[in-house]
Amino acid sequence: MGRKVTLATCSLNQWALDFDGNLERILRSIEVARTRGAKYRLGPELEICGYGCADHFYESDTLLHSFQVLRKLLESPVTRDIICDVGMPVMHHNVRYNCRVLFLNGKILLIRPKMLMANKGNYREIRWFSPWNQLRVEEYFLPRMIQEVTGQDTVPFGDCVLSTKDTCIGTEICHELWSPRSPHIRMGLDGVEIFTNSSASHHELRKADNRVDLVKSATTKSGGVYLYANQKGCDGDRVYYDGCAMVAVNGDIVAQGAQSSSKLQSHRIYWRNLTPVLFSLGPACWLWDYLRRSGQAGFLLPLSGGVDSSSTACIVHSMCVLLCQAVEDGSDQVLGDIRRVVGDESYCPQHAKELCGRIFTTFYMASKNSSEDTCNRAKDLANQIGSTHMNINIDMAVKGILGIFSAATGRWPQFRANGGSQRENLALQNVQARVRMVLAYLFAQLSLWASGRPGGLLVLGSANVDESLTGYFTKYDCSSADINPIGGISKTDLKSFLLYCVEQFQLTALKGILAAPPTAELEPLTDGQVSQTDEVDMGMTYSELSVIGRLRKISKCGPFSMFCKLIHTWKDSLSATQVAQKVKHFFRMYSMNRHKMTTVTPSYHAESYSPDDNRFDLRPFLYNTRWTWQFRCIDNQVEICWRNNVTLLLEQ
User: Fold this and answer.
1) Looking at 328-449, which runs of residues are DSSP E strands?
2) Boundaries of each CN hydrolase domain copy (predicted)?
3) Are 461 and 480 in contact (CB under 8 A)?
């Protein structure tokens, strides 16, 4: 006879150390599961305290408050008659573990510690937790506060499964699914029919399809049901957890939640390459979580009229579109959050453009080196998205700073175009860039005050991942901000995103922005036209940088191994000597400017070759920039290539 079971999984917008909010969201998800007839409810990894607690996991308070929340859950009538599977840290024999706690009707059934830890890229679980590697199940002595509720002194702790009268349930935790020795393999052979996975898996470009393939494959061979739960939203760090809760049966996905929703929208994302669409969802939801949880009143963006700052502006516009859609769909929570942000309890947004004007300020900071074209592009885009836009001129401030320097030294630096040296030329560019940062923060703090409105604004940055790789930005310039939604995204992908915005949001001003060459506009104009371009300054194209960036991080290439790969990849367009020049130039730029990554603005993690120095890409920031040994190896290989080519020509 066939047996029917109703199972529930979810994606929760948890927040590190927000024990009240996390408890409320867990209870709400259990209540929804019960009303829909579920007998088992699965939640995300470490959902009680939040996954992103980082070094707060060391604190006894985090363990204490997690057990206090667990007690509330055990006592709640909402948790009756349904097996609840929740995540929290647990200390066993003075060792800290990342655990699942399964309970039913006020009794704890088992505690299952994580066995295979996530410890690469953005993850540092070994720093806070130990993997469970015992072959036995032990007895765990419950804290007195839990004993008072459950009447139990001890419960099973270890690598165990839950058997009922009619089925068997086995648990995996996040990274265990990605391991070549995943526990579900052994559990399936031992007769487990229902597999669960509680995750805190962040969004990264081209990652979601891998996740789905793994979930499907877990039950393709031996059959069964696989439940996947994930965290959703920004929990206080650079990553965005993209939800995508799902259920697979015998290798087929039978139910799936939305990706990048964060309670803003109900778009269903299917598993194909939708990179531009995801930029309008993931970073937008990350910004909204950050804004509503920060207590600030909106965003401020220096809008230059280029691809990067325009991409940031379009992400904010997309956020407003999603918010208005959520309000139209009847979300009281989103409406309440919007009202708190704008400081008006009666406000109700009518459309995205109008909301954008309330929470988004853009301004163009012109200098004598700025062109009318970029000024007009910035103004046109601001008009189309509805931001509150201002034009200001920074020449007075730049002149004042240079005047202070001149008074102290008796010298007045000149641009290279006016006969100055390279040092003078670079210093004059940096002064302009840093003045813009100072003004950005001044306007962020006081622009709402000047208009009689409460609150301050978060400053948004707009440096892309490729520029971070080479350090093609001024340290402490207007790329220095509170947060940066595009810091993990390549220039190539940003252009694809803007093309999508032209069609999706009818932002026709973007056409001119896309057609213009990228430029910093920090050097004097020539006959009123821009003479400085980014790719010339960097010495390579953005597409070349993307290739180099992936080789450096993903393929783990140093200078020599990168050269050896690129002489084959670029053999149709560049000679071995030219490839050597590109590789050497990149590593000189990269090593000279790596120190900038120690102070770079926290950005949305999106790209697998991100140079984020915070924890994803850990490198020294003081290098021998001559790379003498490595470059000598490249030169020797170039010589070998040249000799081989000469020999081949002679033979012909």
Assistant:
1) 360-366, 388-393
2) 5-271
3) yes
- Residue 333 pLDDT: 93
The residues near 411 (Cβ < 8 Å, ≥ 6 apart) are 405
Contact status, residue 34 vs residue 78, Cβ threshold 8 Å = yes
Residue 391 amino acid letter: N
pLDDT at residue 271, rounded to an integer: 38
629, 631, 635, 652 from 644: Cα distances, Å: 23, 20, 14, 12
CA distance 10 to 188: 23
Q: In the structure encoding, which two tokens stand for residue 256, read together?
A: 């799936």
Give the SS3 label for residue 439.
helix
Q: How many CA atoms lie within 13 A of 45 on its CB side?
A: 27
Task: Supply the DSSP symbol for 530.
Answer: -
Amino acid at 637: Q
pLDDT digits (tens, 9 = 90+) for 119-174: 988 899 999 999 999 888 999 999 999 999 999 999 999 999 999 988 999 999 99
- Predicted local distance difference test score (pLDDT) of residue 539: 86
Alpha helix segments (H runs only) across 36-143 = 60-75, 125-128
Beta bridge partners of 162: 169
Q: What is the pLDDT of residue 611?
A: 78
State in Å, rounded, how far the first CA of the chain is from the last one: 77
Residue 443 tokens read as 């306007």
Phi–psi pair at 356, nearest 5 degrees: -60, -40
Give me the pLDDT at residue 577, please.
Answer: 95
What is d(CA 17, CA 23) in angstroms, rounded to the nearest whole number?
A: 11
d(CA 66, CA 620): 37
Cα 558 to Cα 7, 543, 563, 586, 594, distances in angstroms: 49, 19, 9, 11, 15
**Mean pLDDT over the full length of the chain:** 91
CB 142 within 8 Å of CB 108: yes
Which parts of the chain sit beneath pLDDT 50?
A: 262-273
Task: Give the angle subtended at the CA of 211 by the CAs of 500 and 87, to the nearest 5°.
Answer: 115
- pTM value is 0.85
pLDDT at 270: 46
- Residue 504 confidence (pLDDT): 93
Would you say 299 and 440 are in contact if contact means Cβ atoms under 8 Å apart? no
Main-chain dihedrals φ then ψ at residue 373, nearest 5 degrees = -60, -50
Report the pLDDT value the prediction gives residue 137, as an integer from 0 to 100.
95
